[in-house]
């Protein structure tokens, strides 16, 4: 099976992990801060907080932004469920904003229209999660303008987008948002096996996320309510979690950072090759915003002709050993969300996308032969469907 995505592990990555195994610290040692420093400096952000997944990073980001019961978080329906679930962890509610039919990202126009309505109803969101689908940055300038006007906070879910650029700056620079989160799951652009990171320029948000990732416990006298009882002393000042990243994960992530730019360049080469090979087929290839540089986590094509044909093409590809996938089943159609009252028709562009989208294999290490085979098989599948 040719997967849709997979990790690329070098001997240097393996050596970095083995070195940690032989060292004094398997957790809470020097590798986590080193990985954080590498990501923060790559992004040009003041702080980076490593955690055990992007899901945990989203949770901590929401808490740092003060999201709680009675508050609302809005995001796109075309994302992984974690982008929405983070609100529910905080006792807040979730709503969605339909996508832009060209970029598949949250539509700033739909956001503006929904904000106007919400203002009248006194139901504005506290946080909007902008997901850079496939690695292509959202229209952050437009979203940030609306954030100023309607006083909401912005989290960039950049799980697909590390190594990408928006408006000349690295994703994660934080120019147009409060907190950006990354995922290091093996299918993503770089990996730490499991792992995630939150980056921010705000000292207060960073301090809060650092505290909450480790039980809400501090050893910093400045954060304590009274003077230390002695050298053993720590205080729990918040209800936190154990969301810590291990040293093994951080060593792997840090080692992978050295190849981040190569990984993304390689993804661009593959995408360019797909664009060319697919130009004669009746499929919609990904539109790339000319002012941004996508992380290109995913290469999503659209196959028209209705849901039955889409499904048939998908099945034929899988039967031929091509691990195509669909990113994503619109979150509002999940049973858990339907139980909250969402119906499929609420976000029509998201549903149109769902009825046509197919993620083709896209990862460094995908060979030209495999890519040719994917396209040839797709051509046959489309002819047969
Ligand atoms: C992968 C992903 C997540 C969750 O990442 P984990 O590190 O697996 O928790 C969240 N949002 C998006 C858009 C993702 O693709």
UniProtKB/TrEMBL annotation:
Give the GO molecular function terms. Answer: pyridoxal phosphate binding; transaminase activity
Quote the SUPFAM superfamilies the UniProt record gives.
Answer: PLP-dependent transferases (SSF53383)
Per the UniProt entry, what is one GO biological process? polysaccharide biosynthetic process
**Where, per the database record, does this protein carry N6-(pyridoxal phosphate)lysine?**
188
Keyword Transferase recorded: yes
Q: Which Pfam families match?
A: DegT_DnrJ_EryC1 (PF01041)
Q: What transmembrane ranges does the database entry give?
A: none
- Active-site residue numbers: 188
Recorded superkingdom: Bacteria
* CDD domains the UniProt entry points to: AHBA_syn
Q: NCBIfam families in the record, alphabetically?
A: PseC
Q: Which family does it belong to?
A: Belongs to the DegT/DnrJ/EryC1 family.
The protein's name: Aminotransferase WbpE
Organism classification, top ranks? Bacteria, Pseudomonadati, Pseudomonadota, Gammaproteobacteria, Oceanospirillales
